Amino acid sequence: MGVTTVTDVPGAPADVLHTLFHSEQGGHEQVVLCQDRASGLKAVIAIHSTALGPALGGTRFHPYPSEAAAVADALNLARGMSYKNALAGLGHGGGKAVIIGDPGTLKSEELLLAYGRFVDSLGGRYVTACDVGTYVADMDVVARETRWATGRSPEHGGAGDSSVLTAFGVFQGMRASAAHLWGSPSLAGRKVGVAGVGKVGHHLVEHLLDEGAEVVITDVREDAVRRVLDRHPRVTAVPDTETLIRIDGLDIYAPCALGGALNDATVPVLTARVVCGAANNQLAHPGVEKDLADRSILYAPDYVVNAGGVIQVADELHGFDFDRCKAKAALIHDTTLEIFARAKSDGVPPAVAADRIAEQRMAEARTR
């Protein structure tokens, strides 16, 4: 049973405590509820595991409908970071933080500094970084109160934007998928559909075009699509993801936007033979991984192939070196192949095989 620490929240609501102690995710070492009334900060820091080292994971700033929903999200995300960091070969466990509120109206320097003090109070058990709703500039502020903040700007000793290496890692996952399924890592001539061409997706398109792939894109933001088309006229755009996943002859589908892209509605109509993308939490619910396998669709687990960003922020703690990070991110290719081999030998979907390898690495670390 993990230990739950409630920090500066007298009389924590019953629904929050119920979420902490009865979550299906379970097994967390520590959960800290943080509140600073002066700045309006309400945050949750969840530490799932420190078996492999200090917990590492980003800070999400989001207007959750309830405190219990924020706790549940933090627990789920922290557990995912343990698995991601284990398979990325990092000396880090998994953690995640969420700040409750609309970043567009609540975020302030005072709030970020207060949050930094809470991170610092954990003495290095949790290392934070950017996530949805937080940016490099925010981490620069947080870092004024703690040394345990990464994802900072180069001007402040950080590595800056991590989307470049995230895209590179996804590209390596695609190459491994092609090698496993078609016998060659080359993507030349393959038709790849990229859903979401924002920070990560547009870098991924560059890699695919350099490799000689045929690329089809979509995004809910017209300006994101236009940016890619203006630079690469041979890229094709379709109006929405529903159209993209039904394209005849699609070899690879790359979800690079919101989670839950693989669900009961999309999997039955998906034409691609491979799914490999940057989005987090692509499987909408347990069982979708089996649905993909039943349709002979090869799924490269999202938390494996999109680990380039966390590899970068982890390196920042040791003095960032881009070439060193890129070499480590290139190993995502080998890790993905290892997962496919384990899936075949165990007779399970790749998502299950990935979980087993991560759990094995954490268990072995606990016994050392």
From TrEMBL:
* TM ranges: none
Enzyme class name: oxidoreductase
* Location within or outside the cell: Cytoplasm
Show the active-site residues.
96 (proton donor/acceptor)
Check the record and name the InterPro entries matching this protein: Aminoacid_DH-like_N_sf, Glu/Leu/Phe/Val/Trp_DH, Glu/Leu/Phe/Val/Trp_DH_C, Glu/Leu/Phe/Val/Trp_DH_dimer, Glu/Leu/Phe/Val_DH_AS, Glu/Phe/Leu/Val/Trp_DH_bac/arc, NAD(P)-bd_dom_sf
Q: What is the protein's major site of localization?
A: cytoplasm
Q: GO: which molecular function terms?
A: nucleotide binding; valine dehydrogenase (NAD+) activity
**Pathway recorded for this protein:** Amino-acid degradation; L-valine degradation
**Its Gene Ontology biological processes?**
L-valine catabolic process
Q: Which reaction does it catalyse?
A: L-valine + NAD(+) + H2O = 3-methyl-2-oxobutanoate + NH4(+) + NADH + H(+)
Q: Name one GO cellular component term.
A: cytoplasm
Q: What are the binding positions for NAD(+) in this chain?
A: 196-201
Which keywords are on file for this protein? Answer: Branched-chain amino acid catabolism, Cytoplasm, NAD, Nucleotide-binding, Oxidoreductase
Any keyword Transferase? no
Note the PROSITE patterns from the entry. GLFV_DEHYDROGENASE
EC assignment: 1.4.1.23
**Which intervals hold domain Glutamate/phenylalanine/leucine/valine/L-tryptophan dehydrogenase C-terminal?**
160-368
Subunit text:
Homodimer.
> Which family is this sequence assigned to?
Belongs to the Glu/Leu/Phe/Val dehydrogenases family.
* Protein name as catalogued: Valine dehydrogenase
Organism name: Streptomyces clavuligerus
The upper taxonomy is:
Bacteria, Bacillati, Actinomycetota, Actinomycetes, Kitasatosporales
